């Protein structure tokens, strides 16, 4: 016999998996809908999950020798068009700015769908010698891709991500980088999110626009479908040729570097929900749960809760925070303690295997 569902406000998975997912996102207070189709508002609880993921991923990226930078949101059309296959791949999803300051622009500007064009054109100025290589840069930013069908976290018009862009002196170094970062993503998913993945090379028809080879990690969701949770691309010398990146090698000859790009996004939060959530609502691994411990004061039969219970509850919360736990003390007086048992939005349950 299946256990009784805690929340009757969440559609059972077997009844409608898509609706179950939306119910969990909204009921668990992870996100809300924005005024523009496909643009979500990430609420504090959902953003706290992203912050935990971002901190850990940022640490892993830096441990592999990469550094963070930031590049412009707006990309001139002429830069995108320098790599034909690349611009054709992203053209259907591009959002264009044609008016600025009340005047029509001389050239349409794309709102960042990805950053190869703006970053590679910058690298062409930065790289002159083999001593300038490798270039190992990552950035945390937002991306805009005009999607026709959207779903919170999984596929949105605007989303948050990190994107790495590197240059290398040899094809072997670029391939090593591509696979290294794929393994970083695999380890992150399995160790931080408790989300098993398969990983490997995508087919030519599925590879990134302009890439030599594309690799991805794929996670199996509760509906039996695979979710692409991260990608790593060996771009070969295509972008170096398109954007005029050259360097003087050790033999004092002109050469073109080999490049890579790789990224993960807030889509991982959707994968996290579908991996661990159940018919009672949201379930999060302890490493990304905004609250690892929730303290619910129980009022005494006689006496004031502020005098009899809250001081001790605050003391316990401070002790646990001092020990490194993320603690939430629910001192709201407009709810009864039973709300924690009747509402899936009020708490994050931890999988028994991970607790």
Name the beta content range.
15-25%
Average pLDDT taken over every residue: 90
For this structure, what is the CATH homologous superfamily of the largest domain? Bira Bifunctional Protein, Domain 2
Strand order of the largest sheet: 3-7-8-14-11-10-9
CATH class term of the largest domain: Alpha Beta
**Unreliable runs:** 1-6, 342-347, 350-355
Secondary-structure class: alpha+beta
* Helical residues, percent: 25-40%
State the distance separating the first and last CA atoms. Answer: 24 Å
CATH-defined architecture of the largest domain: 2-Layer Sandwich
Radius of gyration: 24 Å
Report the biggest beta sheet as strand number plus sense, adding barrel if it closes: 7 strands, mixed
Order of helices and strands: HEEHEEHHEEHEEHEEEHEEEHEHHEH
Q: Tell me the total number of β-strands.
A: 16
Query: What's the tally of helices?
Result: 11
CATH topology of the largest domain: BirA Bifunctional Protein, domain 2
Number of domains: 2
C-alpha geometry: elongated
């Amino acid at each position: 016999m299946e256990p009784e569902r805690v929340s009757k406000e969440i559609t059972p998975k077997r009844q409608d998996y898509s609706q179950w997912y939306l119910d969990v996102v909204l009921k668990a207070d992870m996100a809300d809908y924005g005024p523009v189709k496909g643009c979500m508002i990430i609420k504090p609880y959902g953003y706290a999950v992203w912050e935990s993921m971002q901190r850990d991923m940022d640490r892993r990226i830096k441990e592999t020798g990469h550094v963070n930078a930031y590049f412009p949101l707006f990309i001139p059309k002429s830069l995108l068009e320098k790599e034909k296959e690349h611009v054709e791949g992203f053209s259907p999803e591009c959002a264009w700015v044609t008016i600025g300051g009340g005047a029509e622009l001389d050239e349409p500007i794309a709102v960042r769908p990805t950053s190869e064009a703006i970053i590679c054109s910058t690298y062409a100025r930065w790289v002159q010698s083999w001593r300038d290589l490798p270039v190992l840069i990552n950035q945390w930013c937002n991306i805009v891709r005009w999607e026709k069908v959207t779903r919170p976290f999984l596929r949105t018009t605007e989303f948050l991500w990190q994107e790495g862009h590197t240059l290398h002196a040899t094809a072997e170094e670029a391939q090593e980088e591509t696979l290294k970062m794929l393994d970083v993503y695999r380890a992150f998913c399995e160790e931080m999110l408790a989300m098993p993945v398969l990983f490997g090379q995508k087919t030519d028809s599925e590879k990134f626009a302009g890439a030599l080879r594309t690799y991805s990690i794929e996670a199996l969701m509760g509906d039996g479908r695979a979710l692409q949770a991260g990608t790593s691309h060996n771009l070969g010398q295509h972008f170096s040729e398109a954007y005029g990146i050259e360097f003087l090698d050790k033999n004092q000859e002109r050469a073109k570097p080999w490049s890579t790009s790789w990224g993960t996004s807030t889509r991982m939060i959707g994968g996290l929900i579908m991996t661990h959530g159940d018919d009672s609502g949201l379930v999060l691994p302890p490493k990304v749960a905004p609250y690892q411990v929730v303290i619910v004061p129980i009022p005494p039969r006689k006496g004031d809760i502020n005098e009899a219970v809250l001081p001790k509850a605050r003391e316990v919360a401070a002790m646990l925070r001092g020990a490194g736990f993320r603690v939430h003390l629910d001192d709201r007086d407009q709810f009864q303690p039973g709300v924690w048992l009747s509402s899936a939005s009020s708490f994050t349950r931890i999988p028994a295997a991970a607790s």
